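Student: Please help interpret what follows.
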Amino acid sequence: MLKPFEQYVLKYQDMVYNIAWHVTRNQHDAEDIAQESFVRAFEHFTDFSTGEPPKSWLCTVTLNLCRDWLRRQKPVLSGEEKDYRGGGQAADQPEERAAVKEALNALDPESRLLVVLFHLEGFSHKEISEMTGMPISMIKNRLFRARKKMKEILMAEGLRR
């Protein structure tokens, strides 16, 4: 039988890792951020009425750690091999999946994060607003622009109509 915190980690580890990976695009850094997110969750595990930190709280912690990571980075283009742990709505064919991943990676980190939270992790505009502190209208606008840019990239590659 798993302990409550172990169950919590198992329930949310892929989501936390995916958010961190989509910001860092680096397996090692994403794992570090995910680990630190769960360390903080462990420290506050019994502070909540449900007995565990809610999903939105954990995402907010992860987002803040990602922002800290971004502030420490120099702007570089990464050609590293990607390690995304599935989930979300993927394209049907491997080449389409790769093209969508490439289009997603072409976005700026903030837009990429919003797309991941909304489309891959399934958060609502309101939940994303609560996590990021952005107004809902700004989130909708940035998502619209991000989808438009991704569509342009995919159309240039001949994958979308």
User: Anything to note?
Assistant: Residues 56 and 127 are 7 Å apart (CA to CA).
